[in-house]
Amino acid sequence: DAGITQSPRHKVTETGTPVTLRCHQTENHRYMYWYRQDPGHGLRLIHYSYGVKDTDKGEVSDGYSVSRSKTEDFLLTLESATSSQTSVYFCAISEAGTTIHNEQFFGPGTRLTVL
Amino acid sequence: GIQVEQSPPDLILQEGANSTLRCNFSDSVNNLQWFHQNPWGQLINLFYIPSGTKQNGRLSATTVATERYSLLYISSSQTTDSGVYFCAVVLSRGSTLGRLYFGRGTQLTVWP
Hints:
The complex is a heterodimer of chains A (115) and B (112).
Chain A: E1 4-7, E2 10-13, E3 19-25, E4 31-37, E5 43-51, E6 54-57, E7 64-70, E8 73-78, E9 87-94, E10 105-106, E11 110-114
Parallel strand pairs in A: 2-11
Antiparallel strand pairs in A: 1-3, 3-8, 4-5, 4-9, 5-6, 7-8, 9-10, 9-11
Chain B: E1 4-7, E2 10-14, E3 19-25, E4 29-37, E5 43-48, E6 52-56, E7 59-64, E8 69-74, E9 83-91, E10 101-102, E11 106-111
Parallel strand pairs in B: 2-11
Antiparallel strand pairs in B: 1-3, 3-8, 4-5, 4-9, 6-7, 7-8, 9-10, 9-11
């Protein structure tokens, strides 16, 4: 199994509060991704990183920011949580981007509830 | 963006039956993965299969990239096969550095 952990695994918070989710990998992979999964949907990309301090937006990035100060850690921050951000959040890693060896592996997920 | 369509959306089987899940995609891809999401929510990699055929035990997958589809075969199904099966692709052009586009999944239920 790929060495990916996410913390916390479950969180309940209130509307308007800041929330930070952490993804930690032990594989030394360059690429890291944050996805969200909602009922009736597959996963959708929030943000991704292609190296330390190199990040970019995905298709559902509004209301989220990310940071990557070390290869092994990718943080997702909800500056002011809203009920629409209640979801399951998955972190993924891959060795490469669009070239070969870019199979993605997923962490266990974080279930976030915003009341 | 690319459309990824999976069929059927739901599938109910008796233990021991065989099944075929289909994934159609609307654009050229250079990566295709199949995942199994178990009842505990964990995403398990089944196949990394941009083209060709692969087999792993009772599961096999075939991707025909030129015709833009992939098939996942499950033989002699077991109750532990229950869950949601996702197909996900990476566009071969203008891609956001390997981002996966997911289908909506096939919900498989296997009864004993």
